[in-house]
Amino acid sequence: MVLHPVLGKLVSKRVVLASASPRRQEILTNVGLRFEVVPSWFKETLEKSSFTAPYEYAVETAKQKALEVANRMHVKHLRTPDVVIGADTIVSVDEQILEKPIDKQDAYRMLSRLNGKEHSVFTGVAIIHCHSKDNRLEMEITDFYEETKVKFSELSEELLWDYIHSGEPMDKAGGYGIQALGGMLVEYVHGDFLNVVGFPLNHFCKKLAELYYPPSKHNAQHKKYNSIPSVDTFENRSDGEGESSNFTEYKVASKLDSSGMDSSGAVYTSENSSAVRTGFTVPLENQNGVSQSASKLPSKILELMDGFRASKVLFVASKLKIFDNLKKKGPMKAVDIANDIGTSVCGTERLLDACASLGLLEKTPQGYSNTDSANTYLTSDGKYSLHGYIIHSNDHLWPLFTNLEYAVQEGSRQNHRAFGKKADDLFKDYYHSQEVKQRFMAAMHSIARLTAKDVATAFDLSQFKSACDLGGCTGALAHELVQVYPNLKVTVFDLPEVIANISFFQPSGQHTAPVTFVSGDFFKDNLPEADLYILSRVLHDWPDEKIHVLLSKISAVCRPGLNMEKML
Ligand SMILES: O=c1[nH]cc([C@@H]2O[C@H](COP(=O)(O)OP(=O)(O)OP(=O)(O)O)[C@@H](O)[C@H]2O)c(=O)[nH]1
Description:
With 568 residues, this protein is of the alpha/beta class. It folds into 3 domains: 3-297, Maf protein; 298-370, Arc Repressor Mutant, subunit A; 446-566, Vaccinia Virus protein VP39 (Rossmann fold). It has helices spanning 4-7, 22-30, 54-75, 104-114, 157-165, 193-197, 201-212, 231-258, 270-278, 299-319, 322-329, 334-341, 345-357, 372-378, 387-402, 404-410, 415-419, 426-431, 434-458, 476-484, 496-499, 544-557, and strands at 15-17, 36-37, 83-93, 96-98, 118-133, 136-152, 186-190, 283-285, 291-293, 361-364, 367-370, 466-470, 489-494, 516-519, 532-535. The strands form 4 sheets. Strands 1, 2, 3, 4, 5, 6 and 7 form a 7-stranded mixed β-sheet that branches. Strands 14-13-12-15 form a 4-stranded parallel β-sheet. A hairpin with a 5-residue loop joins β8 and β9 (291-293). α8 runs antiparallel to α9. The chain is globular. The ligand O=c1[nH]cc([C@@H]2O[C@H](COP(=O)(O)OP(=O)(O)OP(=O)(O)O)[C@@H](O)[C@H]2O)c(=O)[nH]1 is lined by residues 19-21, 23-24, 39-40, 44, 65, 87-89, 100, 171-173, 176-179, 182, 196-198.
């Protein structure tokens, strides 16, 4: 893998990404870079007219973002990072610079400008090597930019507004996200796609190569790498140039040393050189100077190893209603949030910082505030809130998964270990207390509502006159179905305990055919007749014998001419 030798030079360093952008975090994580996220507090308010070209603005903003983080970390006596990376993405069209829209109207203005035309996306990147000497911060700054040309198709007003209402434009330069729904607006891309998404990975690797493996004396006139040097490139240099190669690299190290880079991370030992010569891999140095292979950074494994921490941060912040609080009150300091929710200040601050690192919150000098995604999905009252499902995940699924080892050993459910009682019937367990029942219904409602439109439109169901959603709970999918197919009559069939509690979840003011609710047990009672049976999030809950019973009942009740293929 050719990229690793370059990125591997960062393995033993404390690397900080000075960006809250989840896309930048993902791009760098995907290639195995390990880093901390410290979002910059630098306000993107540089005077645009003072720059002669748009890319200069992006580069300067990237630099200021990175400098702010490097200085803050140094001043706050946090351990000074070795490398801080900052980036800024802008769109340039008709000599105007477009950043992130401030509201929907602004997004509309931006997208209308881009409509049917070609524009440029510039990402400026700053890489700062830091060193703390006599309590003074010394820095060496490297910066660059990348340009990608993007052309939008001619788009109707309706499409633009549909896109704006999706919420996607709000945290994206130029008001679109090419990696998601915004990709549908784009006719062509000339240049680096990831540059549009927020980070020019290819150019970044070339820059690292220039920094860490500068060309030797013999080919010094080719100062820049036009492609990312491969392992072979490095091998040849070491082989052919013997000591001079080491010397060149040492010079780089000392140059970086004088401006502050940790010398243990940059000086090559002869052991390292010989490792290069063997041609197996380019060596990496860890803190102890021990070589290790960079060719297989186990990023996926590390992600899986630590993933549970991130999940728990999300669960706890949701449980403590931090996102609700911030939606109501705007930016808040940790101490005020802690007072409001009755928690410790130090613990709350750590949790909030973790949320900011995960891209769930924004942290500015005014305090913490919700990102757009947090407002949409994590507050408890939003139309697309996932709050119910998150709480269910924390309170119910988490304890069960903690006992996965026993579940595998014993081949049985682990409710007795997780909750101190056996669950012969899963749903009896959910519905034994009002609190657990409501939590479960809220969970099912929130996930069903979020996915209902996609499910309802994934198939052409217009030939069906009636449908029965078995275990349809609050009717979230049923309500979407009657919106999409006004001639379809939908019956939701669920346990009496569920049907008795659906009123809280019913939509208000929808002018569509009503949904009918029928209570019963689909294993024991007669099923309502229908042309189409929907089993969504049902089968996985039951053993094969029970599934067989249910599918046989559906088969028997299906109207003549319609068969099991007509089940969702
Ligand atoms: O197609 C896409 N275009 C752009 C983006 C995202 O847009 C933002 C650009 O904003 P900025 O560079 O100011 O970065 P922030 O998100 O504010 O984070 P910082 O903390 O670094 O200031 C960026 O997130 C791109 O990823 C996109 O997703 N798709």
